[in-house]
Design a protein that fits this description.
Blueprint lengths: L9 H21 L7 H19 L4 H34 L2 H12 L5 H16 L2 H19 L3 H18 L4 H10 L3 H29 L5 H15 L8 H11 L4 H19 L1 H8 L8 H14 L2 E2 L5 H6 L1 E2 L6 H19 L2 H11 L4 H18 L3 H18 L4 H15 L7 H10 L3 H4 L4 H16 L14
Antiparallel strand pairs: 1-2
Length: about 475
Protein backbone atom coordinates (compact mmCIF):
# COMPACT_ATOMS: atom_id res chain seq x y z
CA UNK A 1 0.00 0.00 0.00
CA UNK A 2 1.35 3.43 -0.93
CA UNK A 3 2.42 5.65 1.96
CA UNK A 4 2.33 8.84 -0.12
CA UNK A 5 0.18 11.63 1.20
CA UNK A 6 -3.01 12.34 -0.72
CA UNK A 7 -3.53 15.88 -1.97
CA UNK A 8 -6.21 17.73 -0.02
CA UNK A 9 -9.13 19.17 -1.92
CA UNK A 10 -10.31 22.66 -0.95
CA UNK A 11 -13.71 21.33 0.16
CA UNK A 12 -12.13 18.76 2.49
CA UNK A 13 -9.81 21.43 3.94
CA UNK A 14 -12.85 23.58 4.73
CA UNK A 15 -14.84 20.83 6.52
CA UNK A 16 -13.44 21.48 10.06
CA UNK A 17 -13.95 25.24 9.63
CA UNK A 18 -17.54 24.79 8.45
CA UNK A 19 -18.17 22.52 11.44
CA UNK A 20 -16.55 24.99 13.85
CA UNK A 21 -18.39 28.09 12.65
CA UNK A 22 -21.75 26.28 12.48
CA UNK A 23 -21.63 24.87 15.99
CA UNK A 24 -20.17 28.01 17.60
CA UNK A 25 -23.09 29.93 16.06
CA UNK A 26 -25.43 27.34 17.63
CA UNK A 27 -23.68 27.77 20.99
CA UNK A 28 -24.33 31.51 20.92
CA UNK A 29 -28.05 30.83 20.52
CA UNK A 30 -28.26 28.03 23.11
CA UNK A 31 -25.81 28.92 25.90
CA UNK A 32 -25.79 32.09 28.00
CA UNK A 33 -22.01 31.91 28.49
CA UNK A 34 -20.23 30.21 25.59
CA UNK A 35 -16.83 30.67 27.30
CA UNK A 36 -17.93 28.40 30.16
CA UNK A 37 -17.17 25.31 28.08
CA UNK A 38 -19.37 24.90 25.02
CA UNK A 39 -16.98 26.66 22.61
CA UNK A 40 -14.01 24.78 24.04
CA UNK A 41 -15.70 21.43 23.35
CA UNK A 42 -16.55 22.42 19.77
CA UNK A 43 -12.94 23.44 19.16
CA UNK A 44 -11.78 20.03 20.41
CA UNK A 45 -14.33 18.25 18.19
CA UNK A 46 -13.24 20.37 15.20
CA UNK A 47 -9.62 19.41 15.96
CA UNK A 48 -10.69 15.75 16.05
CA UNK A 49 -12.31 16.08 12.62
CA UNK A 50 -9.16 17.72 11.25
CA UNK A 51 -7.05 14.92 12.76
CA UNK A 52 -9.24 12.19 11.25
CA UNK A 53 -8.96 13.84 7.84
CA UNK A 54 -5.20 14.15 8.31
CA UNK A 55 -4.93 10.42 9.16
CA UNK A 56 -6.97 9.54 6.08
CA UNK A 57 -4.43 11.50 4.03
CA UNK A 58 -1.49 9.45 5.36
CA UNK A 59 -0.34 11.90 8.04
CA UNK A 60 0.99 10.14 11.15
CA UNK A 61 -0.50 10.78 14.59
CA UNK A 62 2.94 11.76 15.94
CA UNK A 63 3.11 14.56 13.36
CA UNK A 64 -0.34 15.81 14.38
CA UNK A 65 0.50 15.61 18.08
CA UNK A 66 3.81 17.46 17.63
CA UNK A 67 2.04 20.25 15.73
CA UNK A 68 -0.56 20.58 18.51
CA UNK A 69 2.09 20.68 21.25
CA UNK A 70 4.12 23.23 19.29
CA UNK A 71 1.04 25.40 18.85
CA UNK A 72 0.20 25.25 22.56
CA UNK A 73 3.79 26.19 23.48
CA UNK A 74 3.48 29.36 21.36
CA UNK A 75 0.42 30.38 23.37
CA UNK A 76 2.00 29.78 26.79
CA UNK A 77 3.21 33.40 27.24
CA UNK A 78 -0.32 34.65 26.49
CA UNK A 79 -1.82 32.29 29.06
CA UNK A 80 0.73 33.30 31.72
CA UNK A 81 0.00 36.98 31.03
CA UNK A 82 -3.71 36.26 31.34
CA UNK A 83 -3.26 34.65 34.76
CA UNK A 84 -1.12 37.56 35.95
CA UNK A 85 -3.73 40.05 34.73
CA UNK A 86 -6.23 38.20 36.93
CA UNK A 87 -4.00 38.58 39.98
CA UNK A 88 -3.23 42.22 39.14
CA UNK A 89 -6.96 42.98 38.93
CA UNK A 90 -7.37 41.56 42.43
CA UNK A 91 -4.62 43.54 44.18
CA UNK A 92 -5.44 46.73 42.27
CA UNK A 93 -9.03 46.43 43.48
CA UNK A 94 -8.32 45.91 47.18
CA UNK A 95 -5.52 48.52 47.15
CA UNK A 96 -7.99 51.13 45.90
CA UNK A 97 -6.03 51.73 42.67
CA UNK A 98 -8.91 50.95 40.32
CA UNK A 99 -11.49 52.71 42.55
CA UNK A 100 -9.22 55.79 42.61
CA UNK A 101 -8.85 55.78 38.83
CA UNK A 102 -12.63 55.60 38.45
CA UNK A 103 -13.17 58.25 41.15
CA UNK A 104 -10.89 60.85 39.58
CA UNK A 105 -12.05 59.93 36.09
CA UNK A 106 -15.68 60.64 37.01
CA UNK A 107 -14.64 64.00 38.44
CA UNK A 108 -12.70 65.29 35.45
CA UNK A 109 -14.12 63.65 32.30
CA UNK A 110 -17.12 65.25 30.58
CA UNK A 111 -19.73 62.62 29.59
CA UNK A 112 -20.14 64.01 26.07
CA UNK A 113 -16.46 63.56 25.24
CA UNK A 114 -15.92 60.47 27.37
CA UNK A 115 -15.81 57.99 24.46
CA UNK A 116 -13.40 60.24 22.54
CA UNK A 117 -11.28 60.57 25.69
CA UNK A 118 -11.27 56.78 26.17
CA UNK A 119 -9.97 56.19 22.63
CA UNK A 120 -7.27 58.87 22.88
CA UNK A 121 -6.14 57.85 26.39
CA UNK A 122 -5.82 54.16 25.49
CA UNK A 123 -4.08 55.06 22.23
CA UNK A 124 -1.47 57.17 24.02
CA UNK A 125 -0.81 54.61 26.76
CA UNK A 126 -0.60 51.75 24.28
CA UNK A 127 1.67 53.80 22.01
CA UNK A 128 3.97 54.47 24.96
CA UNK A 129 3.99 50.90 26.27
CA UNK A 130 3.60 48.93 23.03
CA UNK A 131 1.05 46.69 24.71
CA UNK A 132 -2.68 46.68 24.04
CA UNK A 133 -3.11 43.90 26.63
CA UNK A 134 -1.52 45.89 29.48
CA UNK A 135 -3.39 49.03 28.47
CA UNK A 136 -6.78 47.30 28.43
CA UNK A 137 -6.10 45.43 31.70
CA UNK A 138 -5.25 48.66 33.56
CA UNK A 139 -6.48 51.94 32.06
CA UNK A 140 -9.14 50.10 30.04
CA UNK A 141 -10.73 48.47 33.10
CA UNK A 142 -10.91 51.84 34.87
CA UNK A 143 -12.42 53.53 31.81
CA UNK A 144 -15.02 50.78 31.54
CA UNK A 145 -16.02 51.46 35.15
CA UNK A 146 -16.27 55.19 34.48
CA UNK A 147 -18.32 54.62 31.33
CA UNK A 148 -20.78 52.31 33.07
CA UNK A 149 -21.17 54.82 35.90
CA UNK A 150 -21.94 57.49 33.30
CA UNK A 151 -24.63 55.26 31.80
CA UNK A 152 -22.94 54.08 28.60
CA UNK A 153 -23.53 50.59 27.22
CA UNK A 154 -20.60 48.38 28.27
CA UNK A 155 -20.01 47.12 24.73
CA UNK A 156 -19.71 50.70 23.47
CA UNK A 157 -17.13 51.61 26.12
CA UNK A 158 -15.18 48.40 25.52
CA UNK A 159 -15.18 49.17 21.79
CA UNK A 160 -13.68 52.62 22.46
CA UNK A 161 -11.03 51.16 24.78
CA UNK A 162 -10.07 48.40 22.33
CA UNK A 163 -10.03 50.77 19.34
CA UNK A 164 -7.58 53.11 21.08
CA UNK A 165 -5.43 50.34 22.54
CA UNK A 166 -5.03 48.52 19.22
CA UNK A 167 -4.23 51.75 17.36
CA UNK A 168 -1.41 52.46 19.84
CA UNK A 169 -0.18 48.87 19.78
CA UNK A 170 -0.14 48.85 15.96
CA UNK A 171 1.88 52.09 15.69
CA UNK A 172 4.25 51.64 18.64
CA UNK A 173 7.90 50.71 17.97
CA UNK A 174 7.79 48.83 21.29
CA UNK A 175 4.99 46.48 20.16
CA UNK A 176 5.87 42.85 19.47
CA UNK A 177 3.56 42.59 16.44
CA UNK A 178 4.88 45.89 15.04
CA UNK A 179 8.38 44.40 15.18
CA UNK A 180 7.27 40.98 13.97
CA UNK A 181 5.54 42.08 10.73
CA UNK A 182 8.54 43.89 9.15
CA UNK A 183 10.86 41.08 10.26
CA UNK A 184 8.68 38.54 8.42
CA UNK A 185 8.29 40.74 5.32
CA UNK A 186 11.92 41.83 5.13
CA UNK A 187 11.80 45.56 5.82
CA UNK A 188 12.94 47.73 8.74
CA UNK A 189 10.81 48.80 11.69
CA UNK A 190 10.54 52.54 11.07
CA UNK A 191 9.90 52.18 7.32
CA UNK A 192 7.07 49.84 8.32
CA UNK A 193 5.62 52.29 10.88
CA UNK A 194 5.81 55.28 8.51
CA UNK A 195 4.10 53.29 5.77
CA UNK A 196 1.32 52.17 8.11
CA UNK A 197 0.36 55.83 8.57
CA UNK A 198 -1.29 55.75 5.12
CA UNK A 199 -3.97 53.23 6.17
CA UNK A 200 -4.03 53.83 9.93
CA UNK A 201 -4.54 57.62 9.93
CA UNK A 202 -7.87 57.68 8.02
CA UNK A 203 -9.04 54.70 10.10
CA UNK A 204 -8.41 56.36 13.46
CA UNK A 205 -9.84 59.72 12.25
CA UNK A 206 -13.08 58.02 11.20
CA UNK A 207 -13.13 56.19 14.56
CA UNK A 208 -12.70 59.42 16.54
CA UNK A 209 -15.47 61.12 14.55
CA UNK A 210 -17.89 58.23 15.16
CA UNK A 211 -17.25 58.10 18.91
CA UNK A 212 -17.50 61.91 19.19
CA UNK A 213 -20.87 61.94 17.45
CA UNK A 214 -22.16 59.07 19.62
CA UNK A 215 -21.04 60.92 22.76
CA UNK A 216 -22.94 64.06 21.83
CA UNK A 217 -26.19 62.29 20.87
CA UNK A 218 -26.19 59.77 23.76
CA UNK A 219 -29.04 60.20 26.27
CA UNK A 220 -27.96 60.55 29.91
CA UNK A 221 -30.93 60.11 32.25
CA UNK A 222 -30.39 61.18 35.86
CA UNK A 223 -26.66 61.40 35.22
CA UNK A 224 -25.58 63.87 37.91
CA UNK A 225 -27.38 62.04 40.71
CA UNK A 226 -25.91 58.76 39.51
CA UNK A 227 -22.34 60.11 39.45
CA UNK A 228 -22.61 61.74 42.88
CA UNK A 229 -23.94 58.51 44.40
CA UNK A 230 -21.12 56.48 42.84
CA UNK A 231 -18.47 58.94 44.07
CA UNK A 232 -19.93 58.86 47.60
CA UNK A 233 -20.03 55.05 47.61
CA UNK A 234 -16.38 54.82 46.50
CA UNK A 235 -15.27 57.23 49.24
CA UNK A 236 -17.26 55.28 51.84
CA UNK A 237 -15.61 52.00 50.88
CA UNK A 238 -12.01 53.03 50.14
CA UNK A 239 -9.33 55.47 51.17
CA UNK A 240 -8.93 57.55 47.99
CA UNK A 241 -5.74 59.50 47.32
CA UNK A 242 -3.70 60.58 44.26
CA UNK A 243 -0.87 58.52 45.77
CA UNK A 244 -2.70 55.37 44.65
CA UNK A 245 -2.17 56.42 41.03
CA UNK A 246 1.57 55.84 41.50
CA UNK A 247 0.93 52.12 40.94
CA UNK A 248 -0.31 52.37 37.31
CA UNK A 249 2.28 55.08 36.62
CA UNK A 250 4.99 52.70 37.85
CA UNK A 251 3.70 49.87 35.65
CA UNK A 252 3.54 52.08 32.54
CA UNK A 253 7.06 53.39 33.17
CA UNK A 254 8.67 49.97 33.55
CA UNK A 255 6.92 48.72 30.40
CA UNK A 256 8.22 51.80 28.54
CA UNK A 257 11.67 50.86 29.89
CA UNK A 258 11.19 47.56 28.01
CA UNK A 259 10.63 45.32 31.01
CA UNK A 260 8.90 42.21 29.52
CA UNK A 261 5.14 41.88 30.15
CA UNK A 262 5.27 38.90 32.54
CA UNK A 263 7.74 40.37 35.11
CA UNK A 264 6.14 43.82 34.64
CA UNK A 265 2.65 42.53 35.48
CA UNK A 266 4.01 40.55 38.45
CA UNK A 267 5.71 43.71 39.76
CA UNK A 268 2.47 45.66 39.30
CA UNK A 269 0.56 42.96 41.18
CA UNK A 270 2.97 42.98 44.12
CA UNK A 271 3.07 46.78 44.32
CA UNK A 272 -0.73 46.79 44.38
CA UNK A 273 -0.55 44.38 47.32
CA UNK A 274 1.88 46.66 49.19
CA UNK A 275 -0.41 49.65 48.66
CA UNK A 276 -3.38 47.61 49.91
CA UNK A 277 -1.56 46.87 53.18
CA UNK A 278 -0.57 50.54 53.62
CA UNK A 279 -3.71 52.37 52.51
CA UNK A 280 -6.67 49.97 52.86
CA UNK A 281 -6.53 48.29 56.31
CA UNK A 282 -10.34 48.25 56.53
CA UNK A 283 -10.59 46.35 53.22
CA UNK A 284 -7.85 43.95 54.36
CA UNK A 285 -9.75 43.18 57.57
CA UNK A 286 -13.04 42.81 55.74
CA UNK A 287 -11.70 40.30 53.21
CA UNK A 288 -9.70 38.30 55.76
CA UNK A 289 -12.69 37.92 58.10
CA UNK A 290 -10.59 36.76 61.06
CA UNK A 291 -12.17 36.15 64.45
CA UNK A 292 -11.36 38.96 66.96
CA UNK A 293 -9.52 36.59 69.28
CA UNK A 294 -7.34 35.38 66.38
CA UNK A 295 -6.78 38.80 64.80
CA UNK A 296 -3.33 39.65 63.51
CA UNK A 297 -2.83 42.29 60.79
CA UNK A 298 0.08 40.42 59.22
CA UNK A 299 -2.03 37.27 58.91
CA UNK A 300 -5.03 39.29 57.66
CA UNK A 301 -2.85 40.99 55.04
CA UNK A 302 -1.40 37.71 53.81
CA UNK A 303 -4.82 36.04 53.59
CA UNK A 304 -6.43 39.02 51.83
CA UNK A 305 -3.65 39.47 49.28
CA UNK A 306 -3.54 35.76 48.46
CA UNK A 307 -7.31 35.65 48.08
CA UNK A 308 -7.32 38.70 45.83
CA UNK A 309 -4.69 37.12 43.57
CA UNK A 310 -6.33 33.71 43.17
CA UNK A 311 -9.99 33.91 44.18
CA UNK A 312 -13.28 35.79 44.37
CA UNK A 313 -13.40 39.28 45.86
CA UNK A 314 -16.66 41.22 46.23
CA UNK A 315 -16.56 44.62 47.88
CA UNK A 316 -20.21 45.48 48.31
CA UNK A 317 -21.72 48.89 48.97
CA UNK A 318 -25.14 50.54 48.89
CA UNK A 319 -24.67 51.38 45.18
CA UNK A 320 -25.46 48.67 42.61
CA UNK A 321 -23.09 50.09 39.98
CA UNK A 322 -20.20 50.09 42.45
CA UNK A 323 -21.02 46.52 43.48
CA UNK A 324 -20.83 45.43 39.86
CA UNK A 325 -17.53 47.21 39.27
CA UNK A 326 -15.73 46.16 42.43
CA UNK A 327 -15.65 42.40 42.14
CA UNK A 328 -12.98 40.14 40.70
CA UNK A 329 -12.08 36.46 40.57
CA UNK A 330 -8.28 36.69 40.39
CA UNK A 331 -6.39 33.98 38.54
CA UNK A 332 -9.19 31.45 38.97
CA UNK A 333 -11.52 33.69 37.00
CA UNK A 334 -9.18 33.36 34.01
CA UNK A 335 -9.18 29.55 33.86
CA UNK A 336 -12.09 29.25 31.41
CA UNK A 337 -10.25 31.59 29.06
CA UNK A 338 -7.02 29.60 29.43
CA UNK A 339 -9.08 26.49 28.61
CA UNK A 340 -10.46 28.23 25.53
CA UNK A 341 -6.99 29.22 24.33
CA UNK A 342 -5.69 25.68 24.87
CA UNK A 343 -8.60 24.26 22.88
CA UNK A 344 -8.08 26.79 20.09
CA UNK A 345 -4.38 25.92 19.90
CA UNK A 346 -5.26 22.22 19.63
CA UNK A 347 -7.55 23.02 16.70
CA UNK A 348 -4.97 25.24 15.01
CA UNK A 349 -2.25 22.61 15.43
CA UNK A 350 -4.38 19.88 13.91
CA UNK A 351 -5.33 22.09 10.96
CA UNK A 352 -1.70 23.00 10.38
CA UNK A 353 -0.46 19.39 10.56
CA UNK A 354 -3.11 18.34 8.06
CA UNK A 355 -1.98 21.04 5.63
CA UNK A 356 -5.49 22.48 5.55
CA UNK A 357 -4.47 26.05 6.29
CA UNK A 358 -1.89 26.01 3.50
CA UNK A 359 -4.40 24.48 1.07
CA UNK A 360 -6.98 27.19 1.79
CA UNK A 361 -4.33 29.91 1.43
CA UNK A 362 -3.17 28.51 -1.93
CA UNK A 363 -6.74 28.78 -3.20
CA UNK A 364 -6.92 32.39 -2.07
CA UNK A 365 -3.59 33.30 -3.70
CA UNK A 366 -4.68 31.75 -7.01
CA UNK A 367 -7.50 34.27 -7.46
CA UNK A 368 -5.40 37.36 -6.63
CA UNK A 369 -4.80 38.84 -10.09
CA UNK A 370 -4.21 42.53 -9.24
CA UNK A 371 -2.36 44.45 -6.52
CA UNK A 372 -5.67 45.31 -4.88
CA UNK A 373 -6.85 41.70 -4.90
CA UNK A 374 -3.46 40.55 -3.58
CA UNK A 375 -3.75 42.95 -0.62
CA UNK A 376 -7.37 41.89 -0.05
CA UNK A 377 -6.33 38.23 -0.22
CA UNK A 378 -3.52 38.79 2.31
CA UNK A 379 -5.90 40.48 4.74
CA UNK A 380 -8.49 37.75 4.20
CA UNK A 381 -5.87 35.07 4.87
CA UNK A 382 -4.71 36.81 8.06
CA UNK A 383 -8.33 36.92 9.23
CA UNK A 384 -8.66 33.23 8.35
CA UNK A 385 -5.64 32.39 10.50
CA UNK A 386 -7.05 34.45 13.35
CA UNK A 387 -10.22 32.37 13.01
CA UNK A 388 -8.50 28.99 12.68
CA UNK A 389 -5.03 29.17 14.24
CA UNK A 390 -6.50 31.47 16.94
CA UNK A 391 -3.32 33.48 17.40
CA UNK A 392 -2.35 36.89 16.00
CA UNK A 393 1.32 35.95 15.69
CA UNK A 394 0.50 33.01 13.43
CA UNK A 395 -1.88 35.29 11.51
CA UNK A 396 1.15 37.47 10.71
CA UNK A 397 3.94 34.91 10.30
CA UNK A 398 2.27 32.23 8.13
CA UNK A 399 0.56 34.54 5.60
CA UNK A 400 3.76 36.61 5.54
CA UNK A 401 5.77 33.59 4.46
CA UNK A 402 3.13 32.39 2.02
CA UNK A 403 2.62 35.73 0.24
CA UNK A 404 6.22 37.01 0.23
CA UNK A 405 7.03 35.54 -3.19
CA UNK A 406 3.80 36.85 -4.74
CA UNK A 407 4.61 40.39 -3.59
CA UNK A 408 8.13 40.12 -5.05
CA UNK A 409 6.77 38.86 -8.38
CA UNK A 410 4.39 41.85 -8.52
CA UNK A 411 7.33 44.21 -7.89
CA UNK A 412 5.96 45.38 -4.55
CA UNK A 413 8.27 46.58 -1.78
CA UNK A 414 8.31 44.50 1.43
CA UNK A 415 6.67 47.27 3.48
CA UNK A 416 3.51 46.78 1.42
CA UNK A 417 3.35 43.21 2.72
CA UNK A 418 4.33 44.12 6.31
CA UNK A 419 1.66 46.84 6.50
CA UNK A 420 -0.99 44.52 5.08
CA UNK A 421 -0.14 41.80 7.61
CA UNK A 422 -0.79 44.25 10.44
CA UNK A 423 -3.94 45.64 8.80
CA UNK A 424 -5.32 42.10 8.69
CA UNK A 425 -3.60 40.10 11.43
CA UNK A 426 -3.03 42.43 14.39
CA UNK A 427 -6.25 44.40 14.11
CA UNK A 428 -8.84 41.62 13.70
CA UNK A 429 -7.55 39.18 16.33
CA UNK A 430 -9.54 40.83 19.13
CA UNK A 431 -12.81 40.43 17.21
CA UNK A 432 -12.79 36.62 17.37
CA UNK A 433 -14.07 35.08 20.64
CA UNK A 434 -11.79 32.03 20.64
CA UNK A 435 -8.66 33.85 19.47
CA UNK A 436 -6.12 34.46 22.25
CA UNK A 437 -6.73 38.23 21.94
CA UNK A 438 -10.52 38.08 21.76
CA UNK A 439 -10.79 35.60 24.63
CA UNK A 440 -8.40 37.62 26.80
CA UNK A 441 -9.92 41.05 26.30
CA UNK A 442 -13.43 39.71 26.74
CA UNK A 443 -12.47 38.19 30.09
CA UNK A 444 -10.37 41.12 31.30
CA UNK A 445 -13.12 43.66 30.57
CA UNK A 446 -15.96 41.35 31.56
CA UNK A 447 -17.72 42.10 28.26
CA UNK A 448 -18.48 39.39 25.70
CA UNK A 449 -16.79 39.64 22.31
CA UNK A 450 -20.20 39.75 20.63
CA UNK A 451 -21.15 42.75 22.79
CA UNK A 452 -18.09 44.88 21.98
CA UNK A 453 -17.44 43.71 18.40
CA UNK A 454 -19.91 46.12 16.67
CA UNK A 455 -18.27 49.08 18.45
CA UNK A 456 -14.61 48.30 17.70
CA UNK A 457 -14.78 50.82 14.88
CA UNK A 458 -11.03 51.13 14.36
CA UNK A 459 -10.55 47.36 14.15
CA UNK A 460 -13.42 47.03 11.66
CA UNK A 461 -12.62 50.10 9.54
CA UNK A 462 -8.86 49.62 9.16
CA UNK A 463 -8.89 46.42 7.03
CA UNK A 464 -11.46 47.96 4.65
CA UNK A 465 -9.43 51.17 4.35
CA UNK A 466 -6.34 49.07 3.54
CA UNK A 467 -8.20 47.11 0.85
CA UNK A 468 -9.69 50.29 -0.65
CA UNK A 469 -6.27 51.97 -0.82
CA UNK A 470 -4.89 48.80 -2.40
CA UNK A 471 -7.48 48.83 -5.19
CA UNK A 472 -7.02 52.57 -5.73
CA UNK A 473 -3.28 52.03 -6.03
CA UNK A 474 -2.61 54.97 -3.72
CA UNK A 475 1.05 55.14 -2.61
CA UNK A 476 1.65 51.47 -3.33
CA UNK A 477 5.44 51.27 -3.29
CA UNK A 478 7.08 49.32 -6.09
CA UNK A 479 10.65 48.18 -6.62
CA UNK A 480 10.76 49.86 -10.07
CA UNK A 481 12.20 53.31 -9.30
CA UNK A 482 10.05 54.97 -11.97
CA UNK A 483 6.89 53.75 -10.18
CA UNK A 484 8.06 54.05 -6.59
CA UNK A 485 6.00 56.27 -4.34
CA UNK A 486 8.28 57.62 -1.66
Amino acid sequence: MSSEKKKLSLFVALIPIIFLVSFIAANVLIFDDTLAGSNQIILIFAAAIASIIAKSHKIQWETIKDAIVSNISKAMPAMLILLLIGSLAGTWLISGVVPAMIFYGLKIISPKVFLLTAVVTCALVSLATGSSWSTIATIGVALLGIGKALGFHEGLVAGAVISGAYFGDKMSPLSDTTNLAPAVAGTDLFTHIRYMVITTTPSIILTLIIFTVIGFVYKFDGLQTNIEDVLASIEEGFYISPLLLLVPVFLILIIIRKVPPIPALLAGTLLGGVFAIIFQPAIIDRIAGLEPEKYNYAVASYKSLMTSMFGDIDISSRNEIVNELFSTSGMSGMLNTVWLILSAMVFGGAMDAAGMLRRITEAIISVAKSTGSLIASTIGTSVLFNLTASDQYLAIVIPGKMFAESYKERGLKPEVLSRTLEDGGTITSVLIPWNTCGATQSKVLGVSTWAYLPYCFFNIINPFVAITIGYLGYKIRKTDKKQAEL
